[in-house]
Amino acid sequence: MSDLPLIQADRAVPPPAATTSTGGRRRRLRLLSRTDRVVITLMVLVPLLLVTGFVWLPAAATVLLSGTNWDGIGPLNEIEFVGARNYSDVVNIYPPFVPAVQHNLLWLAALFVVATPFGMFLAVLLDKELRGSRFYQTALYLPVVLSLALIGFVWQLLYSRDQGLINAVFGSNIDWYGDSNVNIWAVMIASGWRHVGYIMLLYLAGLKGVDPSLREAAAVDGASESRAFFRVVFPVMRPINIIVLVVTVIESLRAFDLVWVVNKGRNGLELISALVTQNVVGEASRIGFGSALATIMLVVSLVFITIYLATVMRENRE
Amino acid sequence: MSTATITRRTEGGPDAPPRRRKLTPLRILLHGFLVVVSLAWLFPIAWAVLTSLRSYDYTAANGYVSFGGWTFDNYVTAWRTAEFGQHFLNSVYITVPAVLLTLFLASCVAFVIARFSWKLNLVLLGIFTAANLLPQQALLIPLFRLFTEVPLPEFMSDSELLYDSYWGLILINVAFQCGFCVFVLSNYMKALPRDLYEAAMVDGASIWRQYWQVTMPLCRPALAALATLEVTWIYNEFFWATVLMRTGDKFPVTSSLNNLRGEFFTDNNLVSAGSVLVAIPTLVIFFMLQRHFVRGLTLGASKG
Fold first, then answer.
1. Which terminus of chain A has a lower count of CB atoms within 10 Å, N or C?
2. Do B153 and B67 fall into the same domain?
3. Helix/strand/coil for B199
4. Considering chain A, what is the average pLDDT of its residues?
């Protein structure tokens, strides 16, 4: 599915060193014994079958099922194609859908506008070889090792209405996880807490890879530090910037664990991922309908996955 | 680390003056800011540890903004009521085989991609890497059906299905995590000198021996970093176990959290003790293998 754009993106860049390796490759191929060829086939085929069978075929099946009225229980030969009806139902007669899309977009905006730039900012500060930099880094990416499900519990200690720290300190009486006006903000803060550390880590690694002479040259030219960063360092880090962007989009699309442990994605915490899950494992299993929701997720993610692959593969060739 | 960055650094080494500058007001401000942010970031975890060590009766009477009531009982109660022993064991049953299998299968594919320069390699790399980035929920519906259709013999799973079995969870975790490892390992292997293989071929080494005795030993740093990361990720995995398991006492630790909610709901001190218990394995890994953990994450993002 994502192969097509991938190959195209790939052809745009001429393969380097192709001329030098073709001769060697032909020689090597001839030197492979029969056992070697069997071994190579198995080394690729077994993992490939696993990934195809458990990831790509189900993804394709999701798209197909989104056009049917299958109830998930009946035999497969009773499936009828209903065209785009599931999609129009999702948009028109499914009340949680619009809030879910809004929440996913809000989630993306919060990560993209607040958490990601803050993580980048911290990375820039920590790149200065400060004393105690190790302590700061450790503190900031400690949340990255915790699961989002666990983070939901840890933050409950701050958010709980009767026993939470926030209400105790400010004398308020808000159920931060339960009140549908505020709970999406509460879980986004908890999720951003983790995201900042992750982005800082990725960005710090990117900054370490920037040629120091670039910055020195900018300093010699009399550019201020912030000017040097925005004019010289930031553009050089384009691949990392794209990766960080894609990571942010995919994280906000995949957001699930946190809302599921809080209230299974209801009452103010609707997310597309949670709606799909509710439609499958919940009481009402509406397969075609759930698949239409899942297909929407799939399409959005594939767009960004393609951007990601094109970036990292181009980067690898250079 | 690619060889390019290493040479670049050594070149810059001798001429570059030592970078320790004097403490200017700006520096003090910077440190002040970083200290505040770091402490704010540590606070939720520290608060969980603090709460877990206090008795419910004391905090109920005096509020949480108080001092005293120190006890270790929450841990004892949480461990017993939530059957953490069993759940930790379940996590081990799933995590250990899944990580080993992921690294083995991923290194096989990565080796072929790195060792030969075939046109199809890029397609292969794309198929694996993209699979790792898909939203899990997008595959749930057909997978759920598949898991409830595939029979397993009873000695493998008492549900006699892939659904509600450790095997199913291991397989889906491996299928999902392979992509990231293939990507990182193939980059790492491409950076190894090609002469190694020429020499091995002169000695008449088969492909399998080249993989197992030449490439794999050289990949130890990357494998260590990936193992650290994958243990954390699979241990932390929540979604698949939540939807593909049914029997309560077969859940791994992370997904068993969801069932604890009801039991612990009225007692935040128990919640915090449970949370700390669940966090301990990942925190131990983090502090002991921090270097590997960080490198694993950044290997995927940079050229490796």
1. C
2. no
3. helix
4. 83
Q: Which of B59, B176, B298 comes nearest A201 by C-beta?
A: B298
**Closest CB from B45, B63, B106 relative to A154:** B45
pLDDT for the residue numbered A206: 85
- Angstroms from B268 CA to nearest CA on chain A: 6
Measured in angstroms, the CA of A266 and the nearest CA of chain B are apart by 15
Interval A162-190 mean pLDDT: 90
Q: Are residues B266 and B206 in the same domain?
A: yes
Q: Which of B139, B274, B283 sits opposite A62 (nearest CB)?
A: B139
CB contact under 8 A, B268 and A157: yes
Which of B178, B42, B62 minimizes the C-alpha distance to A48?
B178
pLDDT (0 to 100) of residue A21: 44
Residues B131 and B204 in one domain: yes
Q: Does B19 touch chain A (CB under 8 A)?
A: yes
Decide if B301 contacts B129 (C-beta within 8 A).
no
- Mark whether B159 and B241 lie in a shared domain: yes
| CA-based nearest residue to A210, from B266, B5, B135, B278 | B5
Report the run of H or E that residue A129 belongs to, with start and end. Answer: none
Q: Pick the more confident residue, B6 or A293.
A: A293
- Whole-prediction pTM: 0.86
Any idea which of B40-44, B62-66, B149-153 has the lowest mean pLDDT?
Answer: B62-66
User: How many CB atoms neighbour CB B8 within 10 A?
Assistant: 15
Chain A residue closest in CA terms to B232: A145
Residue B209 near chain A (CB below 8 Å) = no
Q: What is d(CA A282, CA A25) in angstroms, rounded to the nearest whole number?
A: 54
- ipTM of predicted assembly, 2 dp: 0.84
Q: Is A157 within the bounds of a domain? A: yes
Q: Which residues of B touch A240 (CB under 8 A)?
A: 301-302
Residue scoring higher pLDDT (A196 or B56): A196
Which residue in B has a C-alpha nearest to residue A271's C-alpha? B137
Same domain, B96 and B64: no
In a shared domain, residues B50 and B101: no
For the CA atoms of B252, B255, B261, B263, what is the dihedral angle to 10 degrees? -20
Domain of B259 in residue numbering reads as 84-301
Are both B65 and B93 inside the same structural domain? no
Please answer whether residues B259 and B45 qualify as being in contact, where contact means their C-beta atoms are separated by less than 8 angstroms. no
B30, B139, B242: best to mutate for the A interface, most A CBs within 10 A? B139
Q: How confident is the model at residue A19 (pLDDT cuts 50, 70, 90)?
A: very low
At A131, the pLDDT band (50, 70, 90 cuts) reads: confident
pLDDT at A17: 42
Please tell me the distance from the alpha carbon of residue B220 to that of residue A56, in angstroms, as a whole number: 30
